[in-house]
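Summary for the steering committee. One of the milestones for this cycle was to obtain a three-dimensional model of the protein with fe (ii) ion bound, which we needed before selecting residues for the alanine scan. The sequence and ligand used are listed below.
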Amino acid sequence: MKGFPRGWFIVAWSRELEESGVRPLKYFGTDLVLFRTEDGPAVLDAFCPHLGAHLGIGGCVEDGAIRCPFHAWRFDRQGKCVDIPYASKIPKRATLRSWPVVERNGAIFVWHCPQGSEPAWEIPIIQEYDTAEWTPWRDNCLEGVRTHPREIVENVADKAHFPVVHRTRVHRFENHYQDHKATQVTHGTATPPQGGVDEFQIEATYYGPAFQVSHMDGVLKSILLLAHTPIDEQSLDLRFAVSLERSGPRTEQFAEFYAENLRLGFHEDIQIWEHKVYRERPRICDGDGPIGRLRTWYRQFYAQDG
Ligand code: FES
Ligand SMILES: [Fe+2]
């Protein structure tokens, strides 16, 4: 599977980009600049069409556009040069590629498509996000995990790894695939590393190849946002954020504990992911989940006719 899949990808948490903020990014093997104007976040290719300065390193937001740190050319959110302080005419080709961006659920998403297609589906709104009944996201980013996104996505169908890697007994396990969505339903019993026994039910849905929203019901109700964005062909940033339904004064403390448990859980997977090989033709047995079906679903995001 060469290249990067088509879909929406989280490139930052909203809280990381203040008003008029500018950040360099590197995703999809490409240098990018993320900035925020009054109209929201925008993402452009990073290197100035003039003499090639990186707009994310020393660039600043001015009048709804980003100003290059080298000779002060300014580019609007669509990547069009709108001002050169020392020229009377702006060259026609003075443009940068702009990426479709949506800010939703406390995260900034870009649409990536190798064929340049427009966004093909909506990012769902998480109704509970930013309401009084739910705690604010506790977010995390595990940077530069050395794996391919397909390994992470394969968790959806990989029923048999739960007891081994996560010490979780699975009582019910289902997958549902529809268009760009892949849903995993799991009922089980977890034994967290800090002790105790936890009955849980999870419904986790991938919306495209790169982010998943899970609704979990256990000791408390929680929502998990999981996202992975490729930096290059070898590595990715793994982000997750968790919110808990408020139920008494200990919710915050529990949220902390819970986020830490999740982080430990991801590290268990990461240790496997970073050292494994990808089997094109794995020897599957009857107790495995629907790995073949998952792979067929995932391949749609690499379709050439994108
Ligand atoms: S390199 Fe950007 S304005 Fe000259
Ligand atoms: Fe896992």
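Key point for the committee: Residues 48, 50-53, 68, 70-71, 73 surround FE2/S2 (inorganic) cluster (ligand 1) (CB under 6 Å).
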